[in-house]
Design brief:
With 237 residues, the chain is an alpha/beta fold. The protein has one domain: Rossmann fold (3-Layer(aba) Sandwich), CATH 3.40.50. 46% of the residues lie in helices and 15% in strands. It has nine helices and seven strands; from the N terminus they run E-H-E-H-H-E-H-E-H-E-H-H-E-H-H-E. Strands 3-2-1-4-5-6-7 form a seven-stranded parallel sheet, with helices on both faces. Helix 1 crosses helix 9 and helix 5 runs parallel beside helix 7. The radius of gyration is 17 Å and the shape is globular. The model has no long low-confidence stretch (mean pLDDT 95).
């Protein structure tokens, strides 16, 4: 009697169609995982699907239109992922940036949108998958924060506050997961080397920036059994 091969882990990667997200999706697919990637920009979805035609055809990469800051959409993503397999890992990679003005000169206008994209999306998607993780007493929630959450540069009040709130969320999720064995961690990158950042800061020293693949590798490691004792960590990348 032949034994069926073990099913791949199911990993949700929000923001998986973006510059960092594509590297994260690649890292988990390379590790043999099945990936569910919500999307909101059709052109980005098409590019990711084209890059992984075999994985899409095999059902190892599922692309689902959803704004995960909305509870109903996040729940739909969680259901779709559970149909692939028990969700073992959630990477909250959705993020956005706005800044450049002091708070008293209009910087406060960015606070609501920054909180929505950088905090609410992670909290809502986490709330959708955590019941299953706690019930199985196993799972990892990973978030992508920013060094700005700690350095709090002038002109970035809304962005820094939203990323600092994300770190607070990670700490709370770890405390809530201690009894069941569910882990939560965050990566804390400096400037990520993406085409958009290069276009926005053409005079910068790109060699000091962090490539998306490096961050993706750290996320994959944090999701592995090798990192089972790493809990509630903020990992600079």
């Amino acid at each position: 009697m032949t034994t069926a091969p073990p099913s791949p882990r199911c990993v949700i990667v929000t923001g998986g169609t973006g510059a960092l997200g594509r590297a994260v999706v690649q890292a988990f697919l390379d590790a043999g995982d099945a990936v569910v990637a919500p999307w909101i920009v059709a052109a980005e979805r098409d590019a990711l699907a084209a890059a992984h035609e075999d994985a899409v055809a095999a059902g190892r990469l599922v692309l689902l239109e959803a704004d995960v800051a909305e509870a109903e959409a996040a729940a739909r993503v969680a259901r779709a992922a559970e149909a692939v397999g028990p969700v073992a890992v959630l990477v909250n990679g959705v993020g956005g940036f706005a800044g450049g003005r002091p708070l008293h000169e209009g910087g406060a206008d960015a606070l609501a949108p920054m909180l929505r994209v950088n905090l609410l999306s992670a909290a809502t998607m986490s709330a959708a998958v955590l019941p299953g993780m706690h019930a199985r007493r196993r799972g990892v929630v990973l978030c992508v924060a920013s060094r700005a959450a700690l350095d709090c540069p002038a002109g970035l009040a809304a962005y820094s506050a939203s990323k600092a709130a994300l770190l607070a969320l990670v700490s709370t999720l770890q405390h809530e997961g201690d009894a069941s064995g569910v882990r939560a961690c965050a990566v804390v990158p400096t400037t990520i080397d993406t085409p958009a950042n290069r276009a926005a800061m053409p005079a910068a020293d790109f060699s000091r920036w962090t490539p998306p693949e490096r961050i993706a590798g750290v996320l994959r490691w944090l999701a592995s059994d090798e990192a089972a004792s790493v809990r509630g960590a903020f990992v600079p990348v």
